[in-house]
Design brief:
Order of helices and strands: HHHHHEEH
CATH superfamily: dinb family like domain
Strand order of the largest sheet: 1-2
Number of strands: 2
Strand content: under 5%
CATH topology: Four Helix Bundle (Hemerythrin (Met), subunit A)
Helix content: 55-70%
Number of domains: 1
CATH class: Mainly Alpha
Structural class: mainly alpha
Largest sheet: 2 strands, antiparallel
Length: 155
């Protein structure tokens, strides 16, 4: 499990760099070939991680409930994003891997509600959710790289 936590932390660091190093106009740009933007993808992975690991374990996610509503599966970017939201997402990127690692070591994940993802992978225990979360982070990182290329290339 320790390696999975290390990989999660590394991916969160990559997402955090994208968030902090992308000009705001690019962070919220939606290419015509996509239905979301860089910020939505970043916020979505942090929210989904909380839902997969905490909520499916019958626990309260550690992120703000408004963020969870706004960036869960099936949502789309909204026109207005506050500086506070950006800060909460940035903090979540930095803190969530440690929360998950620490809470796992404390043994708080005692129950789990099985869930079949949109990729048709059934998660039966928290370890499955932690593992699948890496797949989800990878999928959205691919989307982020695609958006970055589209918004930085001349028209």
């Amino acid at each position: 499990m320790e390696k999975l936590f290390d990989i999660t932390e590394k991916l969160h660091e990559i997402y955090h760099k994208v968030l902090l190093n992308t000009p705001e106009d690019q962070l919220f740009a939606i290419p015509s070939s996509h239905n979301n933007n860089l910020f939505w993808n970043i916020a979505h992975v942090v929210v989904t991680e909380q839902l997969l690991i905490y909520k499916l374990s019958g626990l309260t996610p550690r992120l703000d409930g408004d963020l969870i509503k706004k960036y869960s599966k099936g949502t789309f970017p909204e026109k207005s994003v506050t500086k506070g939201e950006i800060e909460k997402v940035a903090d979540g990127l930095l803190n969530a891997p440690g929360w998950i690692r620490d809470d796992y070591k404390k043994g708080i994940f005692k129950e789990f509600n099985p869930y079949t993802t949109s990729a048709q992978v059934t998660l039966n225990k928290v370890e499955d959710a932690i593992s699948f979360n890496l797949v989800h982070l990878g999928i959205h990182y691919g989307t982020i790289r695609s958006i970055q290329k589209l918004i930085s290339s001349p028209a």
